[in-house]
């Protein structure tokens, strides 16, 4: 429930489309399922989260949170406007929250690359082999 003095956030249509593209990509990965713990969308494989997608209801600005083990990708993600290590101690394990609505935010293609990297960190060898066979 949104408090009266905290009106809903309205993301621009282009940002909502970007978020939907990233969400669709994540859910097309082998074995991926969407769940809604804590009221936000997450994509899981092997019952483990590989991307936090947040909410699209306007109660919070659009963002994605991914686990990036590749040092170069991790460093690049952190240079995005508004990006930060994920909260709740997840940042220490390589999770990065990347806002989608900041000026200069990454495009959907790069975000999907990071989602795939995060997926590869979590997925079993079987699921990764299936993904590789698609390419």
Automatic annotation (TrEMBL):
Sections of the chain in a coiled coil: none
A molecular function GO annotation: DNA binding
InterPro entries: YjbR-like_sf (IPR038056), YjbR/MT2646/Rv2570-like (IPR058532)
Keyword set, alphabetical order: DNA-binding
Alphabetical list of Gene3D superfamilies matching this protein: 3.90.1150.30
Pfam family name, one: YjbR
Domain of life according to the entry: Bacteria
Signal peptide start-end: none
Stated name of the protein: MmcQ/YjbR family DNA-binding protein
């Amino acid at each position: 429930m949104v408090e009266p003095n905290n009106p809903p956030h309205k993301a621009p249509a282009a940002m909502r489309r970007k978020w939907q593209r990233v969400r669709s990509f994540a859910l097309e990965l082998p074995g991926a399922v969407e769940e809604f713990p804590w009221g936000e969308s997450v994509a899981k494989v092997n019952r483990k989260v590989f991307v936090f997608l947040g909410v699209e209801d306007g109660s919070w600005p659009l963002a994605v949170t991914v686990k990036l083990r590749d040092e170069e990708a991790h460093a690049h993600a952190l240079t995005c406007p508004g990006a930060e290590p994920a909260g709740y101690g997840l940042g220490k394990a390589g999770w990065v929250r990347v806002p989608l609505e900041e000026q200069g935010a990454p495009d959907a293609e790069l975000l999907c690359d990071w989602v795939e990297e995060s997926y590869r960190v979590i997925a079993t060898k079987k699921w990764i082999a299936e993904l590789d066979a698609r390419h």
